Structure to design on (547 residues):
């Protein structure tokens, strides 16, 4: 995906680690995405309810206040939010813990691979 | 044989049979208590020998004292108390034989013959006390009956001990079983703590690795932006240091667990400068969350600079983890008394319950609120903070009140003492 074709797409990054959150933000913005960030599931849940809705959520699992799992469960239980795809990026990610997500990647995640996945996914939505 | 002698013989035979019936039916004993069997024996003797008072005393193998298990003819009176006191004293001193003793009757005070027969071979197992108002008591035939009764009583005594042993053994078994259950619970709890520790360790070690790797991969994408390149390079270095600190924390936690102190190397330092520098580095990791308040001109002394940086980092990262997101974390440095320095780290958010505050500084102990927060921790950070602080001759405390947030305070002598050994 080129920056111009990604322009209108918003991605929500939910990650409690400042360095990782900022790196993901910079990398995605370089690709032309609009990025919103949250440092825990609780803030993410407030953001995802607002407009415009993100076309993808990159979600960490172990976070304070509200974990990634709790966030995902609440999103899936909400008929308006449930269609928004969630991709798990976590040190403890596995098939079982990521149930309900469209996929998962284990940390330390490869940025190139992650961006490739995001591009493929968002181009399908275009 | 004269009829009177015949009658006496028949009476003795019947009595002997009765005694044996009372005392030698082990199958019945299962359903009867020692008191009931001893009472039956006392009652049988009392009625057939025309006695005033009868009592079966048995020695407890555990208490090493005699206790009345079966009585007949004794009614609680003031005289009985006096009579019992004399008997108890005789039992205690062992002055029980061989002949009868003359004692005042517990009923009316008149003199009666009291005779003690050993249960079994000697008085060690117990005594059969019989008494009659006849001066010739006991006659030869009565002695024979009493001998038979005492030997049968020995069976009762043995049964009683066996029962006592069984109860004692059951008590021991229950005690051991309880102890075993506690050990199993403790082991399970330790296992759970270790599993949680490994899980948290894996997560936490991967976090700075991920941050460093992503920053490194971003470098090639932002190669034309010198400011960004510099920022990413710093971020890589800081995350590598973070990993290194975690490994160091792990090694030091093992030292503390093994009962060794944390080694410190005292160097000259300016505490205010050290804290400023630490906060600046923490901002690289956690963003602009920190508010630094310096309440003293300068604070020059000595400490292990690397170790103190870890104290600040642990307290600050805890405040980030457990404080309300987005709220400021206040770090204050001030002089305390004449030659001490005080560092405090405050965060807003849910208070730490008082019962958790007591175990907060123990290894692998995470508070219930920390566990339910979803944020994994190793449970060694505050243990290390205490270990390092105490190695300098200082102390650390926590204050957490609803509505006021949580405040950790470290007090150190300006010129640290090396107490690590």
């Amino acid at each position: 995906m080129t920056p111009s074709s990604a322009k209108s797409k918003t991605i929500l990054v939910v990650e409690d680690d400042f360095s990782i959150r900022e790196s993901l933000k910079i990398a995605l913005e370089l690709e032309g995405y609009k990025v919103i960030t949250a440092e825990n599931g609780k803030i993410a849940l407030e953001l995802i309810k607002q407009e415009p809705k993100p076309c993808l959520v990159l979600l960490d699992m172990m976070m304070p206040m509200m974990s990634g799992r709790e966030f995902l469960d609440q999103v899936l239980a909400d008929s308006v939010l449930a269609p928004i795809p969630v991709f798990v990026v976590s040190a403890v990610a596995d098939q079982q813990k990521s149930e309900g997500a469209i996929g998962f990647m284990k940390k330390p995640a490869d940025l190139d691979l992650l961006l490739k996945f995001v591009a493929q996914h968002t181009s399908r939505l275009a | 044989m004269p009829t009177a002698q015949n009658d006496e013989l028949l009476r003795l035979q019947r009595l002997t049979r009765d005694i044996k019936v009372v005392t030698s039916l082990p199958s019945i004993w299962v359903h009867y208590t020692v008191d009931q069997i001893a009472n039956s024996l006392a009652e049988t003797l009392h009625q057939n020998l025309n006695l005033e008072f009868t009592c079966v005393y048995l020695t407890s193998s555990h208490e090493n004292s005699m206790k009345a298990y079966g009585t007949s003819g004794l009614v609680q009176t003031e005289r009985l108390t006096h009579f019992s006191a004399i008997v108890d004293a005789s039992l205690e001193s062992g002055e029980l034989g061989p002949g009868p003793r003359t004692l005042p009757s517990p009923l009316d005070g008149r003199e009666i013959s009291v005779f003690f027969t050993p249960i079994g071979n000697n008085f060690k197992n117990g005594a059969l006390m019989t008494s009659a108002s006849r001066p010739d008591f006991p006659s030869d035939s009565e002695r024979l009956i009493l001998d038979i009764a005492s030997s049968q009583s020995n069976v009762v005594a043995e049964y009683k001990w066996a029962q006592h042993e069984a109860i004692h053994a059951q008590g021991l078994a229950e005690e051991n079983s309880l102890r075993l259950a506690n050990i199993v619970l403790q082991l399970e709890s330790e296992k759970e703590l270790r599993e949680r520790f490994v899980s948290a360790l894996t997560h936490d070690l991967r976090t700075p690795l991920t941050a460093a790797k992503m920053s490194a991969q971003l470098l090639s994408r932002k190669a034309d932006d010198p400011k960004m390149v510099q920022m990413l390079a710093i971020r890589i270095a800081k995350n590598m240091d973070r990993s290194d600190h975690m490994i160091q924390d792990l090694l030091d936690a093992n030292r503390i667990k093994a009962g060794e102190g944390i080694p410190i190397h005292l160097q000259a330092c300016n505490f205010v400068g050290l804290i400023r520098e630490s906060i600046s580095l923490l901002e690289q990791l956690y963003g602009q969350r920190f508010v630094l308040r310096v309440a003293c001109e300068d604070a020059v002394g000595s400490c292990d600079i690397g170790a103190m940086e870890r104290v600040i980092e642990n307290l600050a990262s805890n405040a980030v983890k457990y404080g309300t997101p987005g709220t400021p974390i206040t770090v204050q440095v001030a002089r305390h008394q004449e030659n001490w320095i005080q560092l405090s780290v405050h965060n807003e958010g849910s208070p730490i319950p008082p019962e958790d505050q007591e175990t907060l500084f123990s290894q692998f102990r995470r508070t219930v609120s920390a566990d339910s927060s979803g944020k994994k921790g190793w449970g060694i950070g505050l243990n290390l903070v205490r270990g390092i602080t105490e190695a300098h001759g200082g102390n650390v405390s926590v204050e957490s009140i609803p509505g006021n947030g949580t405040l950790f305070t470290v007090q150190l002598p300006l010129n640290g003492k090396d107490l690590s050994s």
Observations:
- The first helix of chain A runs from residue 3 to 6.
- Chain A touches chain B through 30 residues (CB under 8 Å).
- Strands of chain A lie at 10-14, 34-38, 56-59, 86-90, 103-106.
